[in-house]
Amino acid sequence: MMQGLILAGGEGSRLVADGVDTPKALVEVAGRPQILNLIQTLEELGCESVTCMVREGVRVDAPASVVVRSCRTPSSLHTLIAGLAVVPPGPVFCTMVDTVMPPEDWRRVYAGVTDQLRGGSFAVLAVTPFVDDERPVYVRRDAHGRATDIADTPRGGGGGGGGEQAETAVVTGGVYGLSQGARRLATVALSTGSRMRAFLKLLIDVRAPVATVEVPKIIDLDHRRDLEAAETWLGTKASEEAR
User: Which end of the chain is more exposed for a tag (fewer CB within 10 A), N or C?
Assistant: First the structure.
């Protein structure tokens, strides 16, 4: 069974700079705190357990079945490692707290993560061609959709040489599927860097099979404009489904 993990250890400094004083985990999307939206999503997807790593001082009124742990960690990778120490053994479906997708895409990513991990992938990355971030993490893939490189810039030249797909550049979307082996490797990544991309690069460097699941769009709640965009997008999706 899949274990769910939500990483909410960040300070949300870019939201604060935009005048949003509410902690990122508690900003409202579709009328509810974002972390509660994600808790419900992971439970409905079928996660056996849900663990939330929340910034120290932030109170989350989560269901009794959910494990909420306070943390004061310097980076998302540190928060991941702290969370993995709490999560029960087994594969993990992990998301950053600022990740927004419509329900059908959450189901698509979860199904892809489950299938790929069962098929022997070491880790699975949700990716999207939608790029709206100051520091995007680009993923280069081979013809089978497996990650071959993690980079700070898109592939130059637009070609598909070396067996890589000649396609639109994609970036990570803040959702990860981790096998038990990948969980153990996370701590090792601290020797190469303190950010999540250091862990992803290590997975590639050790030649672990890292699969990808692509969805059209993922919004990260980094700025006030992202909150507004998420509300509009999800509202539009809900209206389309109601027709």
Answer: C
Helices 180-188 and 196-205, packing angle to 10 deg: 110
How far is residue 25 from each of residues 35, 148, 171, measured CA to CA in Å? 5, 32, 23
Angstrom distance (rounded) from CA 207 to CA 203? 7
Q: What does the chain come to in residues?
A: 243
Per DSSP, helices labelled H in the chain are 13-17, 34-45, 76-84, 103-118, 180-188, 196-205, 224-242
Token pair of 177 as six digits = 């599927």
Q: How many domains does the chain have?
A: 1
Q: Are strands 147-151 and 49-55 parallel, antiparallel or unpaired?
A: unpaired
Whether 148 contacts 164, CB under 8 Å: yes
Q: Any idea what the CATH number is for the domain that residue 148 is in? A: 3.90.550.10
Mean pLDDT over the full length of the chain = 92
Give 133-185 pLDDT, tens digit per residue.
888 999 999 999 999 999 999 875 344 444 444 467 999 999 999 999 999 99
pLDDT confidence of residue 193: 81
Nearest residue to 152 via CA among 166, 167, 140, 164: 140
Burial group, residue 187, by CB count within 10 angstroms (0-12, 13-18, 19+)? middle
The domain of 171 spans 3-242
- The reported pTM is 0.93
**Residue 71 contacts residue 9 (beta carbons within 8 Å):** yes
